[in-house]
Prior knowledge:
The complex is a heterodimer. By secondary structure, chain A is α/β, with parallel strands linked by helices. Chain A is 48% helix and 12% strand. In chain A, strands 7-8-9-4-10-11-13-12 form an 8-stranded mixed β-sheet, with helices on both faces. The two termini of chain A are 56 Å apart. Chain B is α/β, with parallel strands linked by helices.
Amino acid sequence: MTETTLSAPAKPAKKSARPGTLALLLNNSLATGGLIVLALICLIALAAPILPLPDPDVTAPADRLKPIFSEDHLLGTDHLGRDLLSRLIWGSRVSLAVGLSATVIAAFFGSLLGLVAGYAGGRTDTIIMRGIDMVMAFPYILLALAIVAVLGPGLLNALYAIALVNIPFFARNIRGITLGLSRREFVDAARLSGKSPPQILFLEILPNVLPVIVITMSTTVGWMILETAGLSFLGLGAQPPQADLGSMLGEGRKILFTAPHVSIIPGLMIFALVMSINLFGDGVRDILDPRLRAGSLTRPVSRTAVERNKADIPAPSEKQGVLDVRQMRTEFQIGSSVYKAVGGVDLNLQQGECLGVVGESGSGKSVTAMSIMGLVPTPPGRIAGGAAYLEGEDLFAASDRRIRDLRGGSVAYVFQDPLSTLHPLFTVGAQLTEAITTHQPMSRAKARDKAIDLLSLVRIPNARERLDAYPHELSGGMRQRVCIAMALANDAKVLIADEPTTALDVTVQSQILTLMNGLRRERNAAILFITHDFGVVSAICDRVAVMYAGRIVETGTTDEVLNSPQHPYTAKLIECVPVLGEPERRLDAIEGRPPVVNNLPAGCAFADRCPHVQPACRQGEISLDMSSGTRGVRCLFPLTSGASA
Amino acid sequence: MSEMSQNKASQEALLTIEAVERIFGGERKLFGGHNPAVHAVQGLSLDVKKGETLGVVGESGCGKSTLARLVVGLDLPTSGTITFAGEDLTALARKDRNALARKVQYVFQDPVASLNPRKTIRTILEAPLKHLTDLNADGREQRLAELLQAVNLAPEFLERYPHEFSGGQAQRIGIARALAAGPELIVLDEPVSALDVSVQAQVLNLLDKLKDDFGLTYIFISHDLSVVESVSDRVAVMYFGRMAELGPAKEIFRHPLHPYTDLLMRSAPAPGRHDLMSEDASAELPDPYSPPAGCAFAARCGHKTEKCLAAKPAPDEAVSGAKHFAACYHPLGQA
């Protein structure tokens, strides 16, 4: 399915944010082709009784083996003089019906077994699944043959045999999904709501499994039709004179050399039918599978697209510094709406400095961090304006090759979840040495020594032995230390840490923060520290920038911002956090929700939630007013120190 | 908490947990021997008084979520007893799960994952009313409206699907579901840790209000000490499946007895706090498959002696006042 054209969505018929299911399917040209062919075959097969066709079973020995395009017989006749066109259409009808019903039967029983096994677990699961394994241990065609041999040849018995043979396929698939779902919290919640196990299984879990069943069905129908044809070909399915595609093929086999059209025609039909079903089935799967739907189908791009107005690239600020981000804007195009995740952010990082970027989820702080090195996925993301200068070099104008060198070299990232950042199948040592040798060619032994040094640098005890550990053998704190070691492997000038301690326990968090703080002083590296926690900011950051709806609303040194916030949002945000040692403090919640970034209001984005809002706040752009070199606020009526929000 | 709830709290124990133990694994293998076993919760005893909020603090893997699941009957203890208002809760969970669900309810950590993505909010909230109460259709409709009002949600949300809600709204729905059948005790398992700070404050305030309105008792589980401090009357600190310290919130936070509690408090970042207490990197949890013979915290403790390594301290080894206990041979502030 490489021919998908999802990256260039056609104009959606409705003005919806996301393209609809049908639109997505029609975008996939192969699937659409499959659907058209399939619909055509089905229509003709369904219309067989009303079409002006001769009786498919009437023999006429005088007319035997007429070639195609002969008079009265468009596709010729077979060895008994029966009209091939008529037999083909009636045969397709039979094949389709048998394939579909076998799929439905297999799906029903297989899913039922899978659901029960996955939900019950334990002994029930073992018994059911070992039974399924036994069915799978036989080659399918042998098993089908055995079943037909016992039941006697005939179309219906072939149908049963094929359905039975395919039950394991469904059962295993569905069991896996059910197993995952039945450990989910909503199932526990249903139990606590008083639902009985059957109610949970069929009312809570089944609706979530249904798409998978449909996907599995759509990809197996073609296979089932082939198997039916196979059995009929062997003479165990449809019995003469009834026509089905397999038996037609079987009859044509004997006269393959004298009258090839008798076997080629049903063969082509089987090909067209199965191919169209498979193409269509793949399309359906791509659409129903939430992961694929979320855009994974589009080819991954190694770098965020940059689409900025060439005339309008801001120059670096006078302060220069290691990293200088100017008016950066990052947007996401989803369907027909544009989400302005980052709307003109200025950041400046001096050597050895730690700048905290604080904000709630959705404020654009992570996208800011990812945009700098072009790590925002394209599509749907793109950098729509601004510039990021690393020691004077415009990163958005650099070549892909250059960016690859800088990533993990001069600029390194530390992410929130170390377990998903580290590769589970490689040892910590292998991953560390890889990070080193990618940027600094050196011998394996030397890289290994360097890796040991790095692990000791991040205070991992027994560094030499830990090198051979797999990520899952380490605790969360140790894993995050490894990630930090990887980030430091090539003497990074800028470390971008995106919530590096959020997933950790408090005692571990304080260890990691102390470590990072020590390292930046030792190595004189600048840190861009993304977090939502003002406590963490206090512990490590020199300066802080508060983000709201994709923009910086306040910036200054940590003490200034925390002790005398000027933007009402900052003040509110600080106030609503409970502080250890002050249990009596009333938590002052911010009512309402942040605006959605595809529809930002004019003026201040916080106006709707602000207690001091004035009519002027809702008109026109509000600029970030810098009162000193470091202190700035994007507010028309900033709070004066002492007054509370 | 208000004065009134303090008074109520001193009355009777609503929930009593005695010497509860939960072991995972340890089954017989097919060819002899046993699978390795983990003691998720061990020798845990505590009681929850009617009308109070008991905070449970601890780091990941300390057994606090296992404790929560035991209390609501989603899991059964390997040994020990849990009594709710004089009734054996474990037996009740086996015999009549719905009877237990009418009295004890649960609020999940991840608000969105705890709502079935393919059900409308109406279906989700109606389930406990249908199965746990004997309200008729009109009664249910009325109760739904009350519930939504109690958690500050607009009635039109009933017809929507979970993915249309923000974390805070979804957690309100989770709370409404827990309230639906009129329980006496609600176990809140990290109810705000998946939420943004501004939303966290909204939910905490809401929980506080609901407690007063409906006369509820809470077990509030969290890893965030400042949140626990702001909501709890009493606090239990857990470490490695055991109780480390138990006492009134004020005393625990002002004068911790157990060095672990002290470490937790000094590690917690707070706005305006520049120096974080930080241990050595070798400070790790003990291996759960081969737990140490003595105090589990000894390896990380600055006060440890031979005694700590030899035998486990009893949960009430150190006592301060009438209600403050710690499992420590060398409690802080008491030489």
